[in-house]
UniProtKB/TrEMBL annotation:
The keyword tRNA processing does not apply. InterPro entries: Pirin, Pirin_C_dom, Pirin_N_dom, RmlC-like_jellyroll, RmlC_Cupin_sf. Residues 35-132 form the Pirin N-terminal domain. This is Pirin family protein. Signal peptide: none annotated. It holds the Pfam family Pirin.
Length: 288
């Protein structure tokens, strides 16, 4: 195996989104602007690590109704619970270890808010949201939503740790999330001193994002809430300097033009303008 090393390393940017939800925006990276911000991580558009935070009783921090078009969202929960509702009639509860895959396609409105018991008693919330670009030919697909319950994504032991595969295949395990772009999305936990060897298709983009702890890849280290984008090779060895929890992302680049504004990701500025017009005209629907 020709081992990949860290090609670029950047730290996420603390910010807020939705209704007062603190998060670290990991992709696009700090200082990146325009569509160039997306090319290095193609086919991934955005990665947010929201929380960890403790909701006090009575808070309504969450993500109220908002639109999307032209991509998929994969939301993975580490702590707490959220409820999802959208304009297609999709609804579900997101619990720790579970995920939801939402295809915005030609347009959707959705919300992700704390469950009623969190509103009453408070509690911890933490998770990761990933935006996955849709190929040009799939951007007008009908919108849809799929619940991915924890039982569908069990932890699987690996030497010195465990792995949960959300999409793609790693350690002989295939995740349940169906994406139109070939990719891997996995959560890996390693004990201090452990090492994990991960084969990767040579043509794929690959990145490692520690949520906690520090990992060594080649001669460099990556710590919490950083993005380690990997160079060429057909695999990587992740060594845990400390006990570590990391997201592993890899995928086949689309290499298509990107036009982006707020919650819409299309191929041309004209398509972005039409997305605004469709949303304002109510063509994305409403949450019942």
């Amino acid at each position: 195996m020709k081992e990949r090393s860290i090609l670029a390393l950047h730290r996420g940017q603390p910010t807020e989104d939705g209704n007062r939800v603190p998060l670290t925006r990991l992709v696009p990276g700090l200082g990146q602007r325009g569509t160039d911000a997306f090319r290095d991580m193609d086919p991934f558009l955005l990665v947010d690590h929201f929380g960890p935070m403790v909701l006090p009783p009575g808070t309504d921090a969450g993500f109220p109704p908002h639109p999307h078009k032209g991509f998929q969202t994969l939301t993975y929960l580490l702590q707490g619970a959220f409820r999802h509702r959208d304009s297609t009639g999709g609804a579900g509860r997101l619990d720790p270890g579970g995920a939801q895959l939402m295809t915005a396609g030609r347009g959707i409105v959705h919300e992700e808010m704390p469950v009623p018991e969190h509103l009453e008693t408070g509690g911890a919330i933490e998770g990761v949201q990933i935006w996955i670009n849709l190929p040009r030919a799939r951007k007008e697909d009908p919108p849809g939503y799929v619940d991915l319950q924890p039982a569908a994504m069990p932890w699987v032991p690996v030497p010195g740790g465990r792995i949960r595969v959300l999409a793609g295949t790693a350690a002989g395990v295939t995740g349940p999330a169906q994406t139109p772009v070939p990719l891997l999305c996995a959560h890996l936990e390693l004990e201090a001193g452990a090492a994990f060897a991960l084969p990767l298709p040579p043509a794929w983009m690959a990145a490692v994002i520690p949520l906690a702890g520090t990992v060594r890849i080649g001669e460099a280290e990556a710590g919490p809430d950083t993005v380690a984008r990997l160079g060429d090779g057909d695999g990587a060895v992740l060594g845990a300097v400390t006990a570590a929890s990391v997201m592993v992302l890899a995928g086949e680049p689309l290499r298509e033009p990107i036009a982006h504004y707020g919650p819409f990701v299309m191929n041309t500025p004209e398509e972005i303008q039409r997305a605004f017009e469709d949303y304002q005209a109510g063509r994305f629907g409403t949450i019942g």
